[in-house]
Amino acid sequence: MNADIIVDLQYGDCGKGKVTHHLCKSGEYTHVIRYNGGCNAGHTIYHNGEKYVTHHIPAGVFYGIKSIIGPGCVVSPTQFFKELEELKEGGIETAGIIYIAKNTHVITDSHMEEDGKDSKIGTTKRGNGPAYRDKYARNGVRAEKVPELQEYIIDLYDELHGDKDVNVLFEGAQGFGLDIDWGDYPYVTSSHCTAGAAILNGIPPQAISKVWGVAKAYETYVGRKKFQPDDDIFNMLRQVGSEYGATTGRPRQCNWMNWDLVEKAININGVTDLVFNKMDILDKLGKWVIRKGNQTVQFSNEGYMKDWILTMLEARDINVHFSGDKERI
Length: 329
Ligand code: IMO
Ligand code: MG
What we know:
With 329 residues, the chain is α/β, with parallel strands linked by helices. Helices cover 26% and strands 24% of the residues. The chain contains 10 helices and 17 strands. It has helices spanning 16-24, 77-89, 109-116, 128-136, 156-160, 195-198, 232-240, 259-269, 279-285, 302-312, and strands at residues 2-8, 31-34, 43-47, 50-54, 66-69, 74-75, 98-101, 105-106, 153-154, 167-171, 208-216, 218-221, 253-258, 273-277, 288-292, 295-299, 319-322. The strands form 4 sheets. The chain has a 9-stranded parallel β-sheet, with helices on both faces. Strands 12-13-15-16 form a 4-stranded mixed β-sheet. The chain has a two-stranded antiparallel sheet with strand order 3-4. It starts with a strand and ends in a 7-residue tail after the last strand. The model has no long low-confidence stretch (mean pLDDT 97). It binds 6-O-phosphoryl inosine monophosphate and magnesium ion. 6-O-phosphoryl inosine monophosphate binds next to helix 4.
């Protein structure tokens, strides 16, 4: 058994979907499993020149790989069926490859309604928090109990620990800065967003080989706390980077990359492979800045910024990749 994990090192929206889609291309994975979160996620994926936004369904579906919503997630049947329909309409083959673990908890309409009234955290209003609360209060409903979902239910233990050799890619949602324990509480999501969360989905720790950390060349955050400094450059960054929520359409608050956060996330997640996405957006902006401690480090071009990052990571055994927004890897 082998498993690799994809984890977001910032506040979500770092391009996890793109990395999952890229890694699936190798044809080496037998399963792609979403390990946390619900339809609060919005993963933008370009497949054969078409744009797709997924919320629940792992990106393995684009390559016909068995794609499973794991028990670390919460699932909204309404959103699940809507997404299935969208994929089918988009010409993606979904039959027999999309499953939900039987012990995954359900987001009900009343969870959505309750979350819809949130004004404290600035949630995505997708019912995520109330669904996890009920799961832990032992008042929740598992997917196996929902009649409409029967066709999609799978026992993840039987699936992963049977006779067949499995090679799992774990697709994360949200990000380290939104993690319920390591994020800036209470401005966090209600699930675990670290590599540790992946192994809660039925895989022993020894099976893990690679942890793909995904970061962006700058930071974005959506929610109620003030995040973006008062400087018009960040409004320009939002424009240039098209930083609007894939799930809610809200404008994302922007800031320069915080190296301390990236470093902390690398350490806690045990990152072995690291991707910095959207490097070309800074190029369009003509500014390259990284925050470290109370300082901001400014670079006169992308090359110097990359060199600085590589120097910071020199002592570690990490494969570093830089990617542009338009690179459809
Ligand atoms: P992906 O997987 C960015 C944010 C919300 C809010 C906080 C709590 O696309 O990276 P929630 O609805 O989870 O209770 O909201 O978390 N948030 C995300 N921000 N990307 C996401 O997912 C997010 N999922 C939740 O904006 O601040
Ligand atoms: Mg997103």
